[in-house]
């Protein structure tokens, strides 16, 4: 980024305690009145830059699972202020849950999905009935999760559409009453982000799935609880859910990819 004619430039890079760049870290810049005047995310090398009017500024860098970092700088006309490396320290409350077996609380958890309809709008739905357990190992890499979902509990707030989703055109719940996810690998790319690799069995077919999860910490409420969110994308053809109608100009009625979002609370049992 070149230095603007009307001000100056500030740049830096965000790293973890081991000196590794933190891609996707959030950087916000505030002026003297504490107004946010610039926001950006770091690139794959942890780098950020912003053009600013001359003056005094406060820079805040944040990333999931790390304590926020604050730095001050002064911007002058026609100059480049390099902050160097901003090192974020891990947040001890967002490392990993207490090792043990957690039972998923269905009353405070949700499995939701989003599908495209005629390439225009989104259809939102969820599965209302499911059970599952999460085992957090003494070595985090030994952790496991298993979830069983009642296929007939699909709900999109439209009775005819829900009946169609339960039919042989889609989930075929009479033949395949359950969706089953089991993990085979847990890993931590950094901070409070987890990657959970596993297999999902749906419509009688099994395919690899990776959950991109964010650990939210632990709280004491009717037991010790751990929380996380997770997302993934499913391709219907991987599970032979191939029903389709094509409108004029080749527009499909239902998109081929389904976005999945999970909000999970687990209660520590042992």
Element pattern in H and E: EEEEEEEEEEEEEHEEEEE
Name the average pLDDT: 91
Computed over alpha carbons, the radius of gyration is 23 Å
Strand portion, in percent? over 45%
Helix content estimate = under 10%
| Count, helices | 1
Looking at the structure, what is the overall shape?
elongated
Class computed from helices, strands and strand pairing: mainly beta
Domain Lipid/polyisoprenoid-binding YceI-like: 101-267
Family: Belongs to the UPF0312 family.
Protein name: YceI family protein
Overall description:
By secondary structure, the protein is mainly β. 3% of the residues lie in helices and 56% in strands. It is built from one helix and 18 strands. It has one helix at 159-166, and strands at 8-15, 26-30, 36-41, 47-52, 55-62, 69-75, 80-87, 100-104, 110-117, 121-127, 130-136, 144-150, 154-155, 178-190, 193-202, 205-220, 224-235, 254-268. It has an eight-stranded antiparallel beta barrel with strand order 8-11-12-14-15-16-17-18. The chain has a four-stranded antiparallel sheet with strand order 3-2-5-6, with no helix packed on it. Strand 5 (55-62) and strand 6 (69-75) form a beta hairpin. It is elongated and about 70 Å long.
Would you kindly provide a brief summary of this structure?
The protein has one helix and 18 strands.
